[in-house]
Each structure stands twice: as structure tokens, then as C-alpha cells.
Amino acid sequence: MALQKEIWISDIESNLYANNAFLGVIGKDDSAYVDNKTVHVPQAGAKPTVVIDRASLPATISQRTDADLNYNLKEFTTDPILIQDTEAVQVSYNKRQDVLSDHIKQLSSSVANHSLYTWAASGSSRIVRTSGASTTLLAPSATGNRKAITLQDVQDARTILGQDDINQDEEMYLIMPAQIYWSQFVGIDKISKFLEFGANTAVLPTGVINRILGINIVIRSSVVVYDNTGTPVIKATGSNGLPSSPAAADNMGCILTSKYAVRKAIGQTKVFDNMGDPTFYGDVFSALVLHGAAKARTNQEGIVSIVQAA
User: Fold this and answer.
1) Which of 26, 187, 189, 230 is most buried, by the most CB atoms less than 10 A from its CB?
2) Residue 55 CB: number of other CB atoms within 10 A?
3) Sequence-distant (≥ 6) Cβ neighbours of residue 126 within 8 angstroms
4) Rg of the chain (C-alpha set)
5) Can you tell me whether residue 234 is helix, strand or coil?
6) Rounded CA gap, 108 and 208, in Å?
7) What CA dihedral angle connects 210, 149, 306 and 20, to 10 degrees?
């Protein structure tokens, strides 16, 4: 019995990011800091003041007050699945993978959605609105037109990260909805010429499809959705990590982040079973994974969202 659980746990953990590979490379991994269901990470306090040609001594002594960055892990659970041929599933890796595939994909997708909505920037100083020509590319349930993304929008977002004094050697990632990337971004004149001459470094296993302007480009079916208030607010999400109340005025968003401006953690994975269930004539399994995500700093340094404008 224990062997079966270990096999299932191994499959789930190794495939959790299989279809959301960006989670494997973006963000500081805090899994080692998980305390039950809460992550505790020390956060450095204020930086010291520098004085040129100090006129009086002794210098004033101060202390740095560090903060505790903490965030909770959420429970992600799969609906129970019936396996009618346990022995074959145990000995055949391919069959076991086939049985688990859809469940792992959904679990992985929910974990990734939750991470993105947690990482997305908020507040006017951290949001760049699109400024291109009017298009009909819309978020689910949205109506009307939205302005297309432009190269200047990306440059404006990158400028904000530059003002954050982000280490220039630190990798940057722009996570974009696939619709925006294929329908708008690659059509930008300078970008299309850049790609035409093959000036990119595609690294598909990590989810990165191109590197442009020193930024790793990641695309996904959906990234984040904002409302259409004066300062756009991230939409509330349901159990699948997607907006629970889609509206006609919603706007799609992209996330530009430095590699270590966001954090993530995976806690315990559990597999539950009901062997030889007489009502289902087989074995019933379900799984639980603890996962959490957070911005690295409360001031959101290193993160900018590019949000559609009407």
C-alpha cells in the first residue's frame, strides 16, 4: 500500500510544473522554509545612510529592523479518480501516467494560476496601460475594444524595474497571454524583424520561447485579468485560480518580473486511497498538494503589470 502512495506522490510532484514550466525557473523557492502551512522568510530592513565628509563624531548609531515575510500555503486537491486495474497501473509507468495526466494538468494549471494572480502588480505606480491601436482582442466575457500592446509599453515597464535598482545581471521574465503575444507582440515591426533574423534564444523546457530586449518571454493561455476601474484591480479568483466573476469591462494583463522579485513554495503532497471499494468495483484515489506564492517585497519592487486599456 505504501509503495502505491509513494509512486503516485512521485508522479504528482515531478509533473506538477510539467505544463507550467515557468514556475520551475521564476521565483525564489521557499519550500525549505515551510513551517506546517506557513512560509517564514526574513526580510531585510532599511538600508544604511551614507554621509560624505562627516562633520561630527561620534556618528549616530541606529539599528536595522528586519521584518518577517510570511505567506500561507493553500490546499490544492484533485477530484477522486477510480482505478480499476491497480496491478497494471503499478507496474506500467505509461499507464499510470496516462491515468494521472489529466488530473496533474488541472492541478498544475490551478497552482500556476494562483501564483500568477498572487504575483501580479497592483497600484498605479506598478501598472502600465497598453497604448497601441484599438483591437478586438479581449479577456473572457469582455466586450468592446482594447488598445494593443506596444514596444514602448514594454520599455516603460522595464524602466520601472530599472528605477528599482534591480541587478542588471538578474534575469527578467515577461509572462504574456498567448493571444497578445501571437496576435500583437510578434507583429510589432521591430520585434518581427528581430525574430525574422533569428535573434532569439528559445529554451522551451523552461517555458521561455524568446529573449527580446534582454527579457525572457513566456507565453501562457491566460496570465491575469484586471477590472476596468481608474487604477485596475486584479479580479477575484475561484477554485481553479481564474476569475470567478468575469465581466464585460475586464482587461487582460501581462507580468514583467525579475527572477527573484517573486517567491513560491511547495509543501507536502498526500495521496488518499480507498482500496477495493465495493460500490465502485475498484480503487479510488485523490491527491492533495500544498502550494503558496508571494511577492518578495511588500513594496512590489521588481514587478510591473502591463494591462489593456480601453
Assistant:
1) 26
2) 5
3) 160, 300, 303, 304, 305
4) 23
5) strand
6) 18
7) -40
pTM of the model: 0.83
Contacts of 234 (CB under 8 A, 6+ apart): 117, 120, 122, 224, 225, 226
**CATH no. for 1-44+66-310:** 3.90.1690
* Alpha-carbon span 108 to 72, nearest angstrom: 18
Predicted local distance difference test score (pLDDT) of residue 198:
56
19 pLDDT above the threshold of 60: no
Round the average pLDDT of the chain to a whole number and report it: 84
Give the highest mean pLDDT range of 11-15, 58-62, 247-251. 247-251
Span 74-109, pLDDT tens digits: 999 988 888 777 666 666 666 666 777 777 778 888
- For the chain, the structural domain boundaries read 1-44+66-310
Asked whether the predicted pLDDT for residue 220 surpasses 50, the reply is yes
Contacts of residue 135, Cβ cutoff 8 Å, sequence gap at least 6: 145, 146, 147, 148, 183, 184
